[in-house]
Amino acid sequence: xxxxxxxxxxxxxxxxxxxxxxxxxxxxxxxxxxxxxxxxxxxxxxxxxxxxxxxxxxxxxxxxxxxxxxxxxxxxxxxxxxxxxxxxxxxxxxxxxxxxxxxxxxxxxxxxxxxxxxxxxxxxxxxxxxxxxxxxxxxxxxxxxxxxxxxxxxxxxxxxxxxxxxxxxxxxxxxxxxxxxxxxxxxxxxxxxxxxxxxxxxxxxxxxx
Length: 209
Prior knowledge:
The chain has helices at about 20-35, 45-50, 55-60, 65-85, 95-110, 115-120, 130-155, 165-175, 175-180, 190-205. By secondary structure, it is an all-alpha fold.
C-alpha cells in the first residue's frame, strides 16, 4: 500500500536529544491534534506543549505534515496487515472464521492505537496525506466486504444485507470505541472484543426458516 507520507526522500535519522525522541514527540503531537484539531495546531503550539523550542522539534521531524503522516500510518498499518492476512485463503479455515478473527483483531488494534485511530477518524481529505489515508480506509472496507461475500457464499451468513454495508457496519461498531472505551474502565479488552463479535455475528448468522 502507498504510505501516507509525501513521496519525497525520508529525512536523515538524527540522534535524539535528551528527554524526547521522535516517538515521544509523535505521541504528544497526536494528543494535541486530537485536543485542538490538526489544522488549528502549529509547530509552535507543539513546542510550547513539550516545553521545547521549535528548533528542538525540527531536530527530530521535518514538519507537522510528517507527524500527521506517521500518526495515520500508526493507525492503519497494523489493521492493514490483519485484513491482508485474513483475505488470503487458508487451508481448513473458512471465510467466516477469518471474518470473525478480523473483527476481534480490529478491536485489539484500535485499543492499542486509540489516539492515532481517533485522529484518523477525524480527517476529511484536506491534504494529500489525508486523502491517502482515506484511500487506505476504502481499501480496508473493500477487502472486508469481499470477505463478507465469501462467508455468504459459504452459507454462513445471511444474504439479505449487502456485503459493503456489512463491512461499514462492522468497522463502525469497532470505531465507536474511540468515543467511550478506556483501558482502565469498567470493561476489559477481551470482554469488549467478545461482545462486539457475538452481537455482530449472531445478528448476521443465517437461520433456517
